[in-house]
Amino acid sequence: MAVMQPPTIALFAKYPAAGAAKTRLIPALGPEGAAQVHRLLVERTIATIRHSGLPFAVYFSGAPREDFAAWLGDDVALVEQGEGDLGDRLTRVAAPAILLGADIPGLTPRHLQQAASALDRSDAVVGPAQDGGYYLLGFRQRLPFLFTDMEWGTASVLDHTLARLKAQNIAFTLLDMLADCDRPADLAHYPNLLP
Predict the structure, then answer these.
(1) CA-wise closest residue to 72 among 89, 87, 60
(2) What angle do CA 147, 85, 114 make, to 5 degrees?
(3) 15, 63 in Cβ contact below 8 A?
(4) Are 42 and 154 in contact (CB under 8 A)?
């Protein structure tokens, strides 16, 4: 199998505006506290990506490019997510890529390096999340069928994704399962995130 170019990590991130980020944490932390947790998670995830050595871009929403550049620095590649639901926005990412969210406190550079290595021998790689979704999805070639008519935010996203890959005979690798930080109960596991 020919060696392909390294995948670019596409980190999907919303601007940490109070009331618009990590809204499921607002009952526990308030709008400002929830936004601060999101800010910290994005910054930690970017540091993890940098440590992995892989190329990356932040696919942004919720504020103009200038606000993201002021927050994250001029050296971070920024790509506007565009309109539509999550599936529409994920479909726009060019291959080879590793789609990534910023809400996985346990993510390490090793997970990202394993994902990139997996794409040398598989067409796709999936990092399953404990809540029934996934925290990472990598692909050598675009797989738009993974993003249409998906019930995002439900406990069935991972199962539906794997079933679609199998139905299309797409060879994939599964990474370690990790927990995300989305709900107030999750905060007990990550006290260092609390504002």
Answers:
(1) 60
(2) 45
(3) yes
(4) no
Distance of CA 126 to the CA centre of its chain: 11
Half-sphere exposure (Cβ direction) of 7: Cα atoms closer than 13 Å: 32
The pair phi, psi for residue 25, each rounded to 5°, is -90, -5
Nearest to 114 by CA among 64, 70, 175, 42: 175
Determine the Cα–Cα distance for residues 60 and 53; give it in Å rounded to an integer: 21
Nearest partner of 124 among 4, 41, 13, judged by Cα = 4
Residue 54: CB partners within 8 Å, gap ≥ 6?
6, 7, 8, 9, 98, 112, 113, 116
The model's pTM: 0.93
Q: Per residue in 131-142, pLDDT tens?
A: 899 999 999 999
